[in-house]
Amino acid sequence: MTDAVMPDGATRSGRLTVRRAPEHVQHVEMHGDGRNPLDLRLLCELAETLEAAAEDKDCRAVVLSSADRHFCAGATSKFDPGGPAWTTADLYREVPRLFAFPKPLVAALNGAAVGGGVGLALVADWRQMATDARAQVNFSRLGYTPGFALTRTLPDLVGRHRATELMMSGRAVPAREALAIGLCDGVSEPERLVDDALARARTFAEAAPQPARLLKLETRRPLLADLERILEAELAQQTALKTTEDYAEGMAAAKERRAARFLDR
After folding, report:
1. Are 28 and 64 in contact (CB under 8 A)?
2. 55: burial class by Cβ within 10 Å (0-12, 13-18, 19+)?
3. CA nearest neighbour of 113 among 137, 92, 95
4. How far apart are CA 251 and CA 249, in angstroms?
5. What are the strands, taking DSSP E only, across the chain?
6. CA–CA distance, 265 with 259 (Å, rounded to integer)
7. Nearest C-alpha neighbor of 34 from the set 86, 96, 112, 108
8. How far is residue 156 CA from its own chain's centroid?
9. How far is CA 189 from CA 70, 85, 110, 175, in A?
10. Please, which residues have CB within 8 angstroms of residue 114's CB and are 6 or more apart in sequence?
11. Residue 116's CB: how many other CB atoms inside 10 A?
């Protein structure tokens, strides 16, 4: 898709709009069908954009936000207009490219971050969340287990005990609780969310660029070294569980907006 230059100087291509904010900060805005679902096109475009930002000497920090009513409603094959056919394995092959981004990344979470949408939020170094937003690692309610490296990144962020509870229950976490348990780092009124995220990114951009990159590399080194194995293990578990009756029931219940009746088979 050809890039389109918008009146404000932003560049829009596919699922992303990229704006150069002042003071060495780039703003990457996602957009989809209103829910901003996770699909292969989005991950590929985001990976390419972050890789370009990594090479851009004038960019020292990035803000990732959504123009839709949700930050990211999770992976779905139902929305991918004009994009290639894809599988979960295809999605997970793109994930290491996102985590390899070497500069500070701030995510602005509006609406809901669900399933893989939480995984995408955890790629960031800082999460600013709207007061009316929520995060939900909902895989267990659909009959399978988390992916997008959440089995590693979520315990690293909130602790093993809390992460296990969130993954096993699949419950929604409102913004204030997310802040209290460390799932997000700041809370903003919805109309202030992106401005506050940009302000936080500017504080990172004020630091010397080389130390910031080295610090991020060192703190991420254990995850990056193990990331492919984690994603492979998650995919294998998900693939096995997607053959069960409970997975079929979980997906049907979600589609019909009712409580699932799991039978352990």
Report:
1. yes
2. exposed
3. 137
4. 5
5. 4-5, 11-13, 16-21, 25-30, 61-66, 105-109, 112-114, 126-130, 134-136, 172-174, 186-188
6. 17
7. 112
8. 16
9. 15, 38, 10, 11
10. 70, 72, 73, 74, 135, 136, 138
11. 27
pLDDT tens-digit profile, the chain (265 residues): 457 666 566 888 789 999 987 899 999 999 988 899 999 999 999 999 999 999 999 999 999 999 999 999 998 654 444 556 789 999 999 999 999 999 999 999 999 999 999 999 999 999 999 999 999 999 999 999 999 999 999 999 999 999 999 999 999 999 999 999 999 999 999 999 999 999 999 999 999 999 999 999 999 999 999 999 999 999 999 999 999 999 999 999 999 999 999 999 9
Q: Tokens 């004020």 — which residue?
A: 206
Tokens linked to 42: 């989005």
- The token duo for 43 is 């991950």
